[in-house]
Amino acid sequence: MVIFMFLSQATYKRIEQLCDSHNIRSINKLCNDAGVSQSTVYDLTDGTTKNPGSLLILRLCRTLKITLSEFYDSELFQNLEDD
Predict the structure, then answer these.
(1) Which residues are within 8 A (CB) of 32 and not within 5 positions of it... i.e. 6 or more apart?
(2) Under a CB-based contact definition with an 8 Å cutoff, are residues 77 and 20 in contact?
(3) Least crowded by CB within 10 Å, which of 19, 41, 52, 68?
(4) Strand residue runs (E) in 1-83
(5) CB 27 within 8 A of CB 42
(6) Mean pLDDT of 19-46
(7) What is the pTM of this model?
(8) For the chain, which residues make up each domain, given as ranges?
(9) Residues 6+ apart with CB under 8 A from 34
């Protein structure tokens, strides 16, 4: 079964996955460590933010010590719908 989702939803789910795999207890902690707005990340869940910015993702990646390629290397980014 193929599941379609929006880019914003896939991005938020990926952030959740990475927090879990890096033993970060909350997205708030990741945001604080990365110096990014918690509200921007949470706005991905309800569609308020439909286009997560590259700088946001880059800052999260640096904090997680992963590359952008590693961030997007997930099945979540297959079969995306336009927001």
Answers:
(1) 38
(2) no
(3) 68
(4) 5-6, 80-81
(5) yes
(6) 91
(7) 0.88
(8) 5-81
(9) 59, 60, 62, 63
- According to the model, what pLDDT value does residue 34 have? 95
Question: Residue 47: what residue type?
Answer: G
> Whose structure tokens read 């599941």?
3
Query: What phi and psi values does residue 26 have, to the nearest 5 degrees?
Result: -150, 155
Tokens representing residue 49 in the block: 């933010």
- HEC string of 27-39 equals HHHHHHHHCCCHH
Residue-wise pLDDT tens digits, 69-78: 999 999 999 8
Domain at 5-81, CATH class: mainly alpha
